[in-house]
Each structure stands twice: as structure tokens, then as C-alpha cells.
Amino acid sequence: MSQPSFEIKGVVCSKAPMTKWREAVGDRDMLPAATQYGIPILTMEDVLTIQADLGLSVRFHQILKQSHLDRFSMGVINLHGAPLPEMRGSMTDAMAIIENRDYYGTSLHWMDTGIDSGNILAVERFPITSEDTVYDLFVRSNRIGLELIQTKLNAIIRGDIHGESQEMLLSSTGRTSKTYTKKEVMAWKRVVPETREEQLWRVVRAFQFPGQEPAYIETREGRIYLSAGSNNKGLGEMSLSEG
Predict the structure, then answer these.
(1) Strands (E), the chain
(2) Do residues 216 and 243 make contact, with C-beta atoms less than 8 angstroms apart?
(3) Are strands 236-242 and 223-230 parallel, antiparallel or unpaired?
(4) Measured in Å, how far apart are the chain's first and last C-alpha atoms?
(5) Residue 41 and residue 174: Cα distance in Å, rounded?
(6) pLDDT digits (tens, 9 = 90+) for 131-160
(7) Which stretches within 18-133 are classed as H helix?
(8) 83 touches 125 (CB < 8 A)
(9) What residues does the Formyl transferase N-terminal domain cover (predicted)?
(10) What is the DSSP letter of 118?
(11) Is the dihedral of CA 115, 120, 121, 125 positive or negative?
(12) Fewer CB atoms < 10 Å away: N or C end of the chain?
């Protein structure tokens, strides 16, 4: 907003009640901020009638159709809270921990009608420690994502950064790509008796998020919830609570 050459046509944001995790951490709502700065509040239907140069999607969970993308002459940039092209789809931060990956990250990419499949504009990766929870990765990727927008947006608008094909990057780097669904990730939340100790530690960390149901063990009497903590030696420990 501090760039004099930018005119903000409007913002589309959820009008649904604030989610439990946002209430738990005191997250700010975009609606009052947009109103404060005099930014028009748009609906998805409104987007179909505007004509703009560039769109920016940040943690936006509604589907943009080709008819929406066509309203922006340059295209729409998406901030994807995971490293691309390796991790596409939903709840990738949880899966990064469950799969014991060494690193996580954040990406900017051009949107198309696929799932996080557009050309990559910028990626920043960072290491995952043995004590990081999914919320730690979420917060870190959000912070780095904001930095990417602040440092790369002008260059993208000038045409200095065009984007690289994900398929070409996969071919040149030898990396593999996977698209995750919420359903498959959530299936990990229920801990089964045969879960190995090291896997149990990862699963517990992968579902430790403020305001959300943690990993659990199912019993006849109900669910026993699992949470991760840390002691003074930096070694992981777990605690149990009944649901």
C-alpha cells in the first residue's frame, strides 16, 4: 500500500466467524483493516466484473476459476505455504513433519486451474528441527512468505521475474512432487497401537496447533489427546490429556 504506483482495486476475504486457532492466538482479521484503509470489500462474483493487472492470493481457500484468473492481465500470484514443486495441496506442513523431511518452505507461483501447479516465481526453504510443531512451521512460513512478497513483488511487476515451469524444475533438480489432500493427512491424527516411538513423536508434533484437536488415541471411554513439549535438555517429551 505504500507503493504510489499501485492502486488497490479491492480485497476478497472471508466473512465467516473467526476460526478457533485465530481466536486462540489473537490473529487479526483483514475485514476491519481493509475498512480502515478504505479498501473496497469484494465478493468472488465482484471479481468477475473488475479489470486489473495483478492479483495476489494469500492463504485464500476458495477456488479461483479460469474466469476469475482472466480478469487480471498479468495473472494472479499465489502464496503457497510449502516448498514447490515438492509439496502441493493441503496441510503440507503437517506432512513435512510426519514424513520426517529435513526442510520446509514457502513459495510464490503463478496461479492456474491446477492445484499449486503454476510456474514458480520464488521459493525460500528452511530446516525443520526435531522439536518443531506444525504451528511453528506455519508461523515461520507465513513470516517468510510476507518477506517474499515484499522483496519480489516489484521485480515481478517489472517483468524481471517470469517464473519457472515446475516440470522443468523437477527434471533438472531430481526432486519429486506430491499433492496432499486434507482427508489423507487427517487420517494420521488417530494414533494406532503399532505406531513406532519415533513416528509417534512426529505425528504428535504434526497436529499440535492452537485451537485445533491434537493427535489422539481412541479408547472405549473416549479419546486421549497427545501434546508435545520440551524439557530443559532440549529433548522432546509428550503429555496426555483425556477428551
Answers:
(1) 52-58, 72-80, 87-89, 103-110, 120-127, 178-180, 190-191, 216-218, 223-230, 236-242
(2) yes
(3) antiparallel
(4) 45
(5) 43
(6) 999 999 999 999 999 999 999 999 999 999
(7) 20-25, 30-36, 44-47, 66-69, 92-98
(8) yes
(9) 46-142
(10) S
(11) positive
(12) N
**Residue at grid coordinates 524481471:** 160
Residue pointed to by grid coordinates 517464473: 163
- Per-residue pLDDT of 67-94, as tens digits, reads 999 999 999 999 999 999 999 999 999 9
**Structure pTM?**
0.88
- The full set of domain ranges for the chain reads 43-182, 189-242
Q: Which residues on adjacent β-strands are paired with residue 141? A: none
Q: Which residues, 6+ apart, have CB-to-CB distance to 151 below 8 Å?
A: none
Domain 189-242 CATH (choose: 2.70.98, 1.20.120, 3.10.25, 1.10.10): 3.10.25
Can you tell me whether residue 126 is helix, strand or coil? strand
Question: Which CATH number is 43-182 given?
Answer: 3.40.50.170
Q: Give the H or E element holding residue 154.
A: helix 134-158
Residues 6+ apart with CB under 8 A from 173: none
